[in-house]
Amino acid sequence: MTGFFDTLKTLFADYGGKLGQAIVDHTLYVLVAVAIGFALGLLLGVLLSRVPRWSGVILPVLSIFQTIPGLVFIGVLYICWGNTYATVIVALSVYAMFPVLKNTYTGILEVEGKYVEAAKGCGMSPLQTLVKVELPLAMPTIIAGLRMSAIYTVSWTVLAAMIGKGGLGEFVYQGTTSNNNTLILLGAIPAAILAIAFGAVIDLLQKKVTPKGLRKEAAK
Q1: Which residues of 124-139 are buried (b: 16+ CB within 10 A; e: fewer)?
Q2: Backbone dihedral region of 195: left (phi > 0), alpha (psi from -120 to 50 degrees) or beta?
Q3: All residues at 6 or more sequence positions from 112 whose CB lies less than 8 Å from its CB, including other chains
Q4: Does the pLDDT value for residue 2 go beyond 70?
Q5: HEC readout, 161-197
């Protein structure tokens, strides 16, 4: 046991400062990329729900695009833009957008017609119906997409280290190239903890934004 604590002490003495900075960088990447991805996904999901016939073309194309490995995508952006933070943020934001877009589109279309008709009967405009009826009812599904987006982005952010832009991926890449399992764990364990933390926070958010009526139905 003493040897274990001595090892931890040595690790933190050698890598403590760098690990702390890597965690901060990783978290900021995730927050910025998910925020941008959420905004874009929400907007495009709403637009797509207004014209459902487009979904037969756009969603399959997006699904194909999503299958492109993140390593390839960030590599292409690196060729175009070079070693910049924009390369990382754009790559992560695009991937973070997909789950939110799909869940926004699906959630809005799953809103029962009777609620939309009731809103129209009350004299609401299409925009008011969207904001006051459709989006609130679809919000649990949208937030579920946000949860997937955040958790996936935590792992995708490891790729930032590939172009020398920090994050926990630096430990993972250094560990794999030097065959050092300790370095790999120094990057992987905090990343896993971040994913769990983001998931827990978004679960709480989902409960807050779920209308009380839907909560009661789910509890039955």
Answers
A1: beeeebbeebbbbbbb
A2: alpha
A3: none
A4: no
A5: HHHCCCCCHHHHHHHHHHCCHHHHHHHHHHHHHHHHH
pLDDT at 4: 46
For residue 169, the number of C-alpha atoms closer than 13 Å in the C-beta half-sphere is 22
**208: amino acid identity, one letter:** K
| pLDDT confidence band for 212 (50 / 70 / 90) | low
Taking the CA atoms of 122, 127, 132 and 136 in sequence, report the sign of the dihedral they define.
positive
Query: What letter would DSSP give residue 210?
Result: S
State the alpha helices, DSSP H only, in the chain.
2-50, 55-66, 70-81, 85-109, 113-121, 126-129, 135-156, 169-178, 181-209, 212-219
